[in-house]
TrEMBL record:
Residues 185-268 form the CbbQ/NirQ/NorQ C-terminal domain. This is CbbQ/NirQ/NorQ/GpvN family protein. Belongs to the CbbQ/NirQ/NorQ/GpvN family. It holds the Pfam family CbbQ_C.
């Protein structure tokens, strides 16, 4: 019996999405979950927020409902709606409602993009009542202990019209994400791409000088995700300069001068 249990535990381990911790974020997530507190993740694009949430959901054994928010997203997209199915109208739960009913983690990515009425749904869920009122069905759902709400946004390209109101953000336990420190980032890039650690270290070094160029011309520094792309292409046999141009220059800027500046920094390292 016991070895069967071990085997399934190992299988479960294997299915955990790979996540390399940077600080105390895993412990903080787990505490927030246990204390039934909602969590807000801030940080630039491609620094590991989504991977972190899927890792933690698997670790806690909860189903994950991820929603990428956009400016057309309404409360009904989250809660659900009546749909015509085979001549009958039937209520279909949205991802937020499913997470509440099934006791799962609902992750709203780029939450600042969503329409204003979305916050109306989130407010009663993020105070100690933990309620989800479904006006259309007349239900008032009480979130079970294993429900958790996680939201994220990128403060980098936040503008005045699109930011979280204090009355909303002060309902969350919050943590900041950033690009991992060099050693951790090498580990991640090597593991994700299959490229040898030393060659990844050279890319991570390069990333530091490219990130230093962030400023008026460059909105965001090169992400860990793009470094993984670059290493993946190099590992597949692409010449380094071609791979770097396609992953560390073109996705970052359309401006020729900025592109040239980035390319120069890359040639200085690899040329
Ligand atoms: N700490 C980390 N552990 C493992 N992989 C990471 C980590 N940080 C970044 N990554 C890699 O970077 C990619 C982008 O991360 P992602 O979570 O999608 O970023 P975000 O959601 O912050 O935009 C992931 O697919 C993964 O390959
Ligand atoms: Mg993401």
């Amino acid at each position: 019996m016991s070895h069967i249990a071990t085997a399934s535990a190992q299988n479960f381990e294997q299915e955990l999405p790979y996540y390399e911790p940077v600080g105390n974020e895993c412990a903080l997530f787990e505490q927030a979950y246990q204390q039934r507190l909602p969590l807000l993740l801030k940080g630039p694009t491609g620094c590991g927020k989504t991977r972190f949430v899927s890792h933690m959901a698997a670790k806690l054994g909860r189903p994950l409902f991820t929603v990428s928010c956009h400016d057309d997203l309404t409360a009904a997209d989250l809660t659900g709606r009546y749909l015509l199915q085979g001549g009958e109208t039937r209520w279909v739960d949205g991802p937020l409602t499913r997470a509440v009913r099934e006791g799962g983690i609902c992750y709203l990515d780029e939450v600042v993009e969503a329409r204003k009425d979305v916050t109306v749904v989130l407010h009663p869920l993020t105070d100690d009542r933990r309620l989800l009122p479904l006006e259309r069905t007349g239900e008032l759902l009480e979130a079970p202990d294993d429900f958790m709400l996680v939201v994220s946004y990128n403060p980098g390209y936040q503008h005045i019209l699109k930011s979280l109101k204090p009355s909303t953000r002060q309902r969350f336990v919050a943590m900041s994400f950033d690009f991992p420190p060099p050693k951790v980032e090498c580990e991640i890039v090597a593991r994700e791409s299959g490229l040898a650690y030393d060659r990844c270290a050279a890319l991570v070094n390069l990333a530091a000088s490219l990130r230093a160029m962030k400023g008026q011309d460059l909105e965001e520094g090169v992400s860990t995700r793009l470094l993984v792309y670059c290493a993946t292409l190099i590992n597949a046999g692409m010449p380094i300069l071609d791979a770097a141009c396609a992953t560390l220059v073109e996705p970052l800027s359309d401006d020729q001068d900025v592109q040239q500046g980035l390319m120069e920094a890359i040639r200085a390292t690899f040329g």
